[in-house]
């Protein structure tokens, strides 16, 4: 028996988003935030994600403006940078992941930190006005917060802070939410990860569904 | 105030896996399956994932043997292929994703299917004995099942079927589980995705934690 199934990508997206909007409690999101939440839920395959998503005031607007102005997107992992849909970007924005730069292992040894955290030191020349997307490593988010304690460190426009897991993820996101050095978005607790982070970026990049 | 946090990657992994083993109900998994389930839960940030994970008999053994014998890993999305930790692979196995092959858009138009499904047609020369990893597109998993209805289609050694989402994901995984053309692993229902799929691959590739 041959399987029959929906083969039209646009129809699949439309039905997916309809289902999410029918099932998820999205009432507390603004009109600017709602499409981001919908895509994040879509990537997670879980309407219950909604209750853990937090946007600081102005996050969606600031993040969109930065991309429209040509800002780069700085990602902590290749699974994040590879997931960004290039044709959605409004200004052919650069998507940068420094994790596999050959200098990183030695930098990590010197810093006594993970490679994910050390790789952020290579963000400095790109950081001013950038959209930051941390979707994997809690150590990267903690290190970013420590970098931003220095008033001379360049400021990104906005931070998506969605590392996932059992050690440091909940804590690093709580720290970002408490600090709010710039407008930010988090998924509270252990949930998060590259797919949810990519979904937020893709929704910021374009309103097209 | 500067944040202090665990900066040792090995310690973070060890504590994460300890937490998962303390919290998750893993009793129904065999000794061969348990490390796969633990890593999949780790990637999801959710101990509740355990109840949705299904391994067919012999899956873990077959999948491991195929990689040890040098089989390639065929991935439906770049977020999957990019996530595979190369130094864990036992035989410098090839990791193949054909989604961005320039022939794919035209093939998809001709087939009246998604690019994710069309890209699988380019797997045929690599499919015999391969480890297949579908972590994104339900249409890819449905198309693979239809390809395998043809007895002349080469057989992979094992299939990780973990597409995510609201249209076709649950259905395509249920179809794989009912058919079992070769040993397979699924996450029942809507949950799944590239991170969980990559975690399964990385656990199959090496027992190192």
Strands of chain A, total number: 6
**What count of structural domains of chain A?**
1
Largest sheet report of chain A: 6 strands, mixed
Helix content of chain A: 40-55%
Any guess at the CATH architecture of chain A?
3-Layer(aba) Sandwich
Compressed to H and E, one letter per element, the order of chain A equals HHEHEHEHHEHEHEH
Within the CATH hierarchy, at the fold level, what is the topology of chain A?
Rossmann fold
Strand order of the largest sheet of chain A: 1-6-5-4-2-3
The total of helices of chain A stands at 9
- What's the average pLDDT of chain A? 97
Low-confidence stretches of chain A: none
Q: Rg of chain A to the nearest angstrom?
A: 17 Å
Strand fraction of chain A: 5-15%
**Most extensive interface, residues per chain?**
A-B, 51 and 51 residues
Oligomer: homodimer
Write out the CATH superfamily name of chain A: Cobalamin biosynthesis CobH/CbiC, precorrin-8X methylmutase
Structure overview:
Two copies of one chain form a homodimer. Chain A is α/β, with parallel strands linked by helices and 209 residues long. Chain A has a single domain, classed as 3-Layer(aba) Sandwich (Rossmann fold). Chain A is built from nine helices and six strands. Chain A has helices spanning 9-23, 34-44, 59-68, 78-83, 104-111, 115-118, 138-148, 169-179, 194-205, and strands spanning 53-55, 73-75, 95-97, 131-134, 158-161, 184-187. Chain A has a six-stranded mixed sheet, with helices on both faces. In chain A, strand 5 (158-161), helix 8 (169-179) and strand 6 form a beta-alpha-beta unit. In chain A, helix 1 (9-23) crosses helix 2 (34-44), helix 2 (34-44) runs antiparallel to helix 9 and helix 7 (138-148) runs parallel beside helix 8. The mean pLDDT of chain A is 97. Chains A and B meet through helix 1, helix 2, helix 4, helix 7 and helix 8 of A and helix 1, helix 2, helix 4, helix 7 and helix 8 of B.
């Amino acid at each position: 028996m041959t399987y029959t199934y929906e083969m039209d990508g646009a129809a699949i997206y439309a039905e997916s988003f309809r289902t999410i909007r029918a099932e998820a409690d999205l009432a507390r999101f603004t009109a600017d935030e709602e499409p981001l939440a919908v895509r994040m839920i879509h990537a997670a395959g879980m309407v219950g994600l909604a209750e853990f998503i937090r946007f600081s005031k102005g996050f969606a607007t600031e993040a969109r403006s930065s991309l429209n102005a040509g800002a780069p997107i700085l990602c902590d992992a290749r699974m994040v940078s590879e997931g960004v849909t290039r044709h959605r970007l409004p200004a052919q924005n650069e998507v940068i992941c420094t994790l596999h730069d050959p200098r990183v292992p030695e930098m990590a040894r010197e810093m006594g930190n993970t490679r994910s955290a050390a790789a952020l030191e290579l963000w400095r020349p790109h950081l001013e006005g950038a959209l930051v997307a941390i979707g994997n490593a809690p150590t990267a988010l903690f290190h970013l917060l420590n970098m931003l304690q220095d008033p001379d460190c360049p400021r990104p426009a906005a931070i998506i802070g969605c590392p996932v897991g059992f050690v440091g993820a909940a804590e690093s996101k709580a720290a970002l939410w408490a600090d709010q050095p710039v407008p930010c978005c988090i998924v509270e607790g252990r949930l998060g990860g590259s797919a949810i982070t990519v979904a937020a970026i893709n929704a910021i990049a374009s309103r097209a569904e």
